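seq:
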Amino acid sequence: GAPGAAGPIFAFGSDDRTPYFDDVPPGSLLRLPLIGFIAQSDPVFQRTYAWLHSKDFPYSFHDQPDGLPGSYRLPSTTVWSIADHLLLQRGNAAALRILLASHWDAGIAAEGLDPADGRVRTGAAFATAAGYLAAAICDRYCLAGRGE
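struct:
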């Protein structure tokens, strides 16, 4: 029952009666296939992905040049969203473009980027975020060629 969804999608939470349709990038629903919970090709995940990138999700930033889903907590394109999208088949190209275009904080990953222009918005020089992003980059580009 998410507004505007093309069918059932994953809920971010529930109060045992009502599903809560939202997302928070450090624990995003977009990570579900990355942790082996569901295949990226599964229709429920595909609809969830589409909804999080649509005008119906208030923090999708779907109409912004550097926009990937954020949240009420981090209303920006987050480093976690960039990292997760690097590892997904769908969204990889957009994440790579944002990653390469951003100036970050003198080259050190920040928590959030402005979806309109890619400038640092929150969490400048955020070491934990940088580590998460570095792991995603290596998972996608470093280890892939070694069969690991």
